[in-house]
Amino acid sequence: KQVLASVGQSRLMNIYDDLFSVHNLTVAQALLTRADLNDRSGYLNARNTLLALMELGVITIVNENDVVAVDEIRDAKFGDNDNLSAMVANLVDADLLLILTDLEGLFSADPRIVKDAKLIPLVEKITPEIERLAGGTLSTAATGGMVTKIEAAKLATASGVRVVIASGMEMAIIERIVGGETPGTHFLPQSEPDARQRWLLSGLAARGRIIIDDGAAKAVRRCSSLLPAGVKGVDGVFKRGDIVRLVSHEGVQLGYGIANYDAAEVDIIKGEHSERIIEKLGHSYGDEVVH
Length: 291
Hints:
By secondary structure, the chain is of the alpha/beta class. The protein contains twelve helices and ten strands. The chain has helices at 2-5, 9-21, 34-37, 40-55, 81-91, 128-133, 146-158, 173-178, 195-202, 214-221, 263-269, 277-281; strands at residues 26-32, 58-64, 96-101, 122-123, 162-167, 185-187, 206-212, 231-236, 243-248, 253-258.
């Protein structure tokens, strides 16, 4: 890993070829940016390419395209390989996302600091308490640490993918996990969304946020429509038909949806009963802000 990190992409494929040719395996490299997946057609094109490579028996190494994804371009970068891996797991409907690190998994505290920290073998649901356990990274060279691994696990499990965080230092760790052993920390999938829902859950194309009250939050969790009466505020700019984030008034993200009105219109009708939409706007696209 240290050798690969110290070389440029021009040398990367030669190293991969050397590693995999011993086992008579074919390898390819795919370079992605967030912009490639932002729209539905780009998402599907990337998906079809990766699935076609899999059908051909090609092992694809996915990297972020740092040549075009620069920090100055807002939302252009994945930023870390953990979130990139979760996006790819979402993209190809993976059964398992295995994240290898220098720790045995998620602990009750940082084991490099707290000697009696306990490994957490199973996480049924990623709660705020689990997120707090991730803490920060101690490595000055890392871009994420355990925090981004938990973020990646949250996205992947919401997309119906089982996730394991384990130590990459252990012998035959991949074979052991695929074979049914349970080292590391296992995160259970939370749902089995269809392909379109997976794209929505990725959040790649989200344009803004709608802040909702407690009653609307309960309705959204039951997959009921969001009515203007439950809207408390709007953050960002979006148009009718754009994907938006649905957020509680405490700032907790609840999900994603397709806006039935643009941001300015939602701001006008927030808190109102649906029958007053025409009175407020002079037109109506339906009773729901998000179906």
